[in-house]
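can u do me a favor
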């Protein structure tokens, strides 16, 4: 899920050739050596709220900016991934940047590189050919990498930011990109709290599973049986049982610790599954309470948004 950044909404740029105004769009061109991490960079930028396009023909870039500015909601940040696979990009950066500068669009260039031995190892792991390998004299991977370095030398020299990923882990690259393109705020994590019934199976996509079957089951209380954990009478009963509040606070603390760790490691989504027998009473009440506590707590800075899903509610 991409969050649209509304920065600079009050600072529109002039429309070329008219007195009209449009919202300001910021562009970054993402390029560099094959195998140096362009795909990872694109995913990180997308998580940071950038709209990412891959190898867009230069003649369509200006149109893309105009469409993005007039979209609802408008696209404020546009990342253009360009590489030698595209017949439109031969290493002449001006073909990409000059039309943007003519529109008055702030444009930066990110260049990713790595050492030859690391690139060779990465291509070996991926078991794929270098895009220029077949064009080299001897058809070797080393020759393809060398040819790409020559073709992109001028682009590297003109780049605003060059990142050498030779010694970087994926998580370290995440952090560098967040510092450069995250607007000074580390990307937060989106949390889903999902209730479920164990008798219907544990959710396969859960990052953390909480079991609240130790709490007394409202199913055996005649006046509560037909109600759900979303209703106050059931919620008060569940949270009023001995140990329920302590368990909720402990789970909240554990979720925060895990969310902070996930965020530091570059993960942007987390699902906490809360289960009881049928997924109607206890798990629903605890899931709602955990989500509310996480949304309101000051120390939950690692979590950007929280949503609640009741998978099995109404199944019976």
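np, heres the sequence
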């Amino acid at each position: 899920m991409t969050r649209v950044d509304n920065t600079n909404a009050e600072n529109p740029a002039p429309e070329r050739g008219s007195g009209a105004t449009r919202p300001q769009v910021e562009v970054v061109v993402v390029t560099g050596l094959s195998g140096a991490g362009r795909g990872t960079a694109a995913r990180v930028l997308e998580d940071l709220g950038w709209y990412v396009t891959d190898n867009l023909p230069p003649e369509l870039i200006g149109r893309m900016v105009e469409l993005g500015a007039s979209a609802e909601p408008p696209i404020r940040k546009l990342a253009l991934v360009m590489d030698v696979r595209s017949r439109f990009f031969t290493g002449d950066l001006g073909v990409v940047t000059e039309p943007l500068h003519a529109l008055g669009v702030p444009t930066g260039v990110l260049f990713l590189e790595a050492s030859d031995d690391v690139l060779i190892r990465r291509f070996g792991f991926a078991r794929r050919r270098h895009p220029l390998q077949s064009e080299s004299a001897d058809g070797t991977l080393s020759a393809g990498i060398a040819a790409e370095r020559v073709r992109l030398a001028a682009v590297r020299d003109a780049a605003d930011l060059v990142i050498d990923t030779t010694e970087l882990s994926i998580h370290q690259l995440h952090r560098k990109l967040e510092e450069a393109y995250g607007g000074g705020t580390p990307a937060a994590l989106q949390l889903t709290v999902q209730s479920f019934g164990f008798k219907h199976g544990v959710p396969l996509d859960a990052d953390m599973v909480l079991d609240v079957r130790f709490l007394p089951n409202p199913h055996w209380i005649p006046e509560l049986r037909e109600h759900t954990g979303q209703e106050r009478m059931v919620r008060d009963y569940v949270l009023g049982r001995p140990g329920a509040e302590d368990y909720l606070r402990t789970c909240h603390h554990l979720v925060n610790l895990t969310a902070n760790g996930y965020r530091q490691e570059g993960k942007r989504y987390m699902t906490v599954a809360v289960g009881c027998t049928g997924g109607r009473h206890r798990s629903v009440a605890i899931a709602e309470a955990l989500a509310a506590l996480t949304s309101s707590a000051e120390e939950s800075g690692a979590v950007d948004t929280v949503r609640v899903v009741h998978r099995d509610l109404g199944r019976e």
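Residues 1-21 have pLDDT under 50 and may be disordered. hope that helps!!
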